[in-house]
Amino acid sequence: MDGQRGGQTDGRVDNQPPYMQVLGFDYGEWRIGVAIGDRRIGNGRPLTTLHNRNADQIDWNAIETLIADWHPDALVLGWPIDDAGRCYPVAASIRRFGNRLRVRSGLPVYVVDERLSSEQAAQRLGRRAIERDQGRIDAMAAAVILDSFFTQEALRPIEDVSKAEVTQNLVGSPATTRD
């Protein structure tokens, strides 16, 4: 499906295919939570948490294996913004990761607001589950991110995220005026 259907038939905007399987990522410099979701079902399911040596040493082989195993139509990243729409400092690393992911996979990569995803993940898992395995919260947060993605009316491709957005519109900097 090319995503350019004429008109809306099921409440979705034109650039949202109705039956899209998606891998979601909750990026962190030390861990990346991964979830799988299908638009037909409308929610995400935690898969795994990948462990990085640091922000520049991502386990690309594991990511490529997940993509090969699950055959997603697109990839989704949580986008770290506050209530005023300003980015958290990790946004620059997420933007870099998202662009590398798009190039390496050849798949479209979208970003979605990840506000409160970790808190929602913690509520779903419960304190004891997190105490047993801290990485579980990252995979569950990726599932929460996919849940948000499936309710979006408009998709935001990673290519639309500018360098200026992640360097000049940061949490802690003076609020910018929006026209």
Outline the biggest β-sheet: 6 strands, mixed
Strand content: 15-25%
CATH superfamily: YqgF/RNase H-like domain
Radius of gyration: 16 Å
Low-confidence stretches: 1-14, 175-179
Could you please say which CATH topology applies here? Nucleotidyltransferase, domain 5
Number of helices: 6
Assign the CATH architecture.
Answer: 2-Layer Sandwich
Read across the widest sheet, the strand sequence of neighbours is 3-2-1-4-5-6
Strand element count: 6
Task: Estimate the global geometry from the Cα principal axes.
Answer: globular
Helix content: 25-40%
Structural class call reads: alpha/beta
Distance between the termini: 36 Å
Number of domains: 1
Could you state the order of secondary-structure elements as H and E? EEEHEHEHHHEH
Mean pLDDT: 78
Task: Give the secondary structure arrangement, pairings included.
Blueprint: E1 21-27, E2 31-38, E3 43-51, H1 60-70, E4 74-79, H2 91-105, E5 109-113, H3 117-125, H4 127-132, H5 136-150, E6 156-157, H6 163-168
Parallel strand pairs: 1-4, 4-5
Antiparallel strand pairs: 1-2, 2-3, 5-6
Helix pairs in contact: 3-5
What does this structure look like?
With 179 residues, the protein is an alpha/beta fold. The chain has one domain (21-168): YqgF/RNase H-like domain (Nucleotidyltransferase, domain 5), CATH 3.30.420.140. It has 6 helices and 6 strands. It has helices spanning 60-70, 91-105, 117-125, 127-132, 136-150, 163-168, and strands spanning 21-27, 31-38, 43-51, 74-79, 109-113, 156-157. It has a 6-stranded mixed β-sheet. Strand 1 and strand 2 form a beta hairpin. Helix 3 packs across helix 5. The longest helix is centred in the middle third of the chain and has 15 residues, at 91-105. It is globular, with a radius of gyration of 16 Å. 32% of the residues are buried. Residues 1-14 and 175-179 have low confidence and may be disordered.
